[in-house]
Design brief:
The complex is a heterodimer of chains A (363) and B (236). By secondary structure, chain A is mainly alpha-helical. Chain A has ten helices and no strands. Chain A folds into two domains: 154 residues; 168 residues, no CATH class. In chain A, 43% of the residues are buried. By secondary structure, chain B is mainly beta. Chain B has three helices and 17 strands. Classes of the chains: A mainly alpha (363), B mainly beta (236).
């Protein structure tokens, strides 16, 4: 029998403990809604629509949930639907936190639920302040917290899965080498840093700082002198409300390009090492291969973002695949470290968090 | 008494031409071929069909970064006397109107004094948000303006070149205002000509600034009679 929804996790289910499948499904639902929310947030920024509804928590003076449809137009459509979906994710996360508190016997899971609840509240306030304080820089934090929150909710989904409970019982059989675990952790951190760079690029609201690829203004490394920047800006005919570009933004995009290939190399190495050390049929080897496919797709989307002059839909999918890449790396780490943790005497305990982990009872 | 009054009047008339304020005039010219403007139609149609419907499909608006006549006459260049500060009469100057009509701003480039009112109108049958973005410490604003809503009024208290107005509901809508700390400024017209009126005698640095091509300066001395200074911008 396979775990529902995870063809990569072909671990037979002979779990020693009971799980709560509805809690797991609800956590997955929350994660999926969060993923969509990241996409919708990406659309808001891609369409330069973040400030189209100037007030918060009201919308054009209306209760957010009662804004007449006639106002759902242009940039306001993206911003307002983002707010509504964010409210839905807030509700789902609150229910998830309460559910974990009531039905999961692991105390650390209670705290994860609390962290998710506080995270979604903080994220909502951050999004609101970004509007009311008119601060672009808050948008970067808003994007970063979104990615972190997505990882947290996906981790909760993982920890509530039958796969995770079973893993706790089988960890002796499935150790992952320390070097490989550390390598994947490093690459995952690198992906997070790359997402921060991407968020910074997007929240400068300057459009494409470099309009060509693989060259950069026709060169391997672009001229960033004041005269060159003035020339680039003079040649740009911006259709949307984007700001003039600066040398900082050009350098940032060059770092983003270089980091992308570093990540590709890192993930390719992880996939190769996992296959070599764990065998091709191992779930982590397959997950690493999936991760590699995501990174290749992500790089293709990055190139397409430039070649389409930052088409909103392409740029947004680039954001979403970035989030998936981070989560994949993070879950790989959790599973890898989980499989390799020193088991406690009780086979039903789990050492990742140093506390008893697997006693999920259907209360 | 009568003779003394006539004498005094003659004396004033004799001295006035020497002290009277004069105009600084000139022509702005663009050399070279600027990049082509972009048709806003596709963006408008995709993001807000209501706005696109206001236009004949064959005559959709375009961007207006380079407004150039056939002989290179260069419009939308802000000309001002640099380093003349503390002379603003903005609080008593008539307000400037910035209209949102057909989902575009008119005018796209303009200038005001510190403290001078800018009245923003919404002549469209749709909502706009009026979002100002300053790079020089002026207060940023972001206000919704309903269709048929009351006019919005803004003033700025620091000099700034090309402070941006934008609408995020319709992200192609943008206008720039230059805020000046004196009444000595103007914006070149479609014929490329400009006039800075009533400049007192003296030596000045005249600055001409274009949104895309940056600023140039020239020294000029205003004496008896009008002064002329021309600028030539170049697209490389």
């Amino acid at each position: 029998m396979k775990i529902r929804g995870g063809s990569f996790f072909k671990v037979s289910i002979n779990a020693p403990t009971k799980t709560n499948p509805w809690l797991f499904r609800f956590a997955v639902l929350t994660a999926c809604a969060t993923f969509l929310l990241i996409g919708l947030g990406g659309l808001v920024t891609s369409h330069e629509a973040g400030m189209s509804v100037p007030d918060w928590p009201t919308s054009y003076g209306y209760n957010m949930f009662a804004l007449p449809i006639k106002f759902w137009k242009g940039g306001a459509f993206f911003e307002h639907t983002h707010r509504l979906l964010a409210s839905a994710v807030g509700l789902l996360t609150t229910i998830l936190a309460v559910w974990l508190r009531l039905k999961d016997s692991r105390r650390w899971m209670h705290w994860l639920g609390v962290a998710a609840f506080l995270g979604v509240i903080a994220q909502g306030i951050l999004g609101g302040l970004r509007v009311t304080m008119k601060m672009d820089s808050l948008g970067i934090f808003h994007g970063a917290v979104a990615q972190t929150f997505f990882v947290l909710v996906c981790a909760i989904a993982l920890f509530t899965s039958r796969f995770w409970i079973e893993l706790a019982a089988r960890q002796k059989e499935l150790p992952v080498l320390r070097g490989l675990r550390r390598h994947v952790l490093f690459v995952t951190i690198l992906i997070f840093a790359q997402l921060l760079i991407g968020a910074t690029m997007r929240h400068q609201h300057a459009g494409l700082a470099i309009p060509d690829f693989p060259s950069a203004y026709g060169k391997i490394w672009p001229d960033t002198s004041a005269a060159a920047i003035a020339r680039y800006n003079a040649e740009r005919i911006e259709v949307t409300n984007v700001n003039p570009i600066t040398a900082f933004q050009i350098i940032l995009q060059m770092i983003h390009r270089l980091a992308a290939f570093l990540i590709l190399a890192g993930v390719a190495a992880a996939a190769w090492l996992a296959r070599k050390r764990l065998g091709g049929t191992d779930s982590l080897a397959k997950l690493a291969l999936f991760w590699l496919a995501l990174i290749v797709l992500q790089i293709a989307l990055g190139m397409a973002t430039i070649w389409t002059n930052k088409a909103a839909d392409v740029a947004t999918v680039h954001v979403m695949i970035g989030a998936l890449s981070l989560v994949t790396g993070a879950l790989w780490c959790l599973i890898g470290f989980g499989r390799s943790a020193s088991p406690l005497p009780d086979a039903q305990t789990f050492g990742v968090f140093g506390v008893q982990a697997s006693m999920m009872a259907n209360k | 008494m009568k003779y003394s009054s006539i004498f005094l009047l003659l004396a004033v008339l004799a001295v006035t031409p020497i002290l009277r304020a004069t105009d600084i005039t000139g022509v702005i010219t663009l050399k070279g071929t600027p990049p082509p403007e972009v048709d806003l139609g596709p963006t408008m149609s995709e993001a807000s069909p209501d706005c696109a419907a206001m236009y004949d499909p064959a005559k959709m608006p375009t961007t207006h970064f380079y407004v150039v006549g056939q002989k290179g006459q260069f419009a939308d260049v802000v000309v001002l006397l640099k380093n003349v500060t503390g002379k603003s009469t903005g609080t008593s100057a008539p307000p400037v109107v910035l209209d949102q009509k057909g989902c575009v701003y008119a005018p796209g480039i303009f200038a005001v004094q510190i403290g001078q009112k800018i009245i923003v109108k919404n002549s469209d049958n749709c909502i706009h948000n009026v979002h100002t973005i300053s790079a020089a410490g002026n207060t940023d604003h972001n206000d919704a303006q309903m269709a048929g809503g009351a006019d919005l009024t803004y003033t700025f208290d620091k000099p700034e070149a090309f402070l941006k107005f934008q609408c995020d509901v319709h992200p192609w809508m943008k206008a720039w205002v230059t805020v000046v700390d004196s009444p000595y400024f103007c914006v070149s017209g479609k014929d490329g000509k400009f006039v800075i009126k009533n400049v007192p005698p003296g030596k000045y640095t005249v600055e001409a600034a274009h949104r895309k091509l940056g600023a140039q300066t020239q020294e000029v001395e205003v004496k008896d009679g009008d002064a002329t200074v021309n600028f030539t911008f170049e697209v490389k």
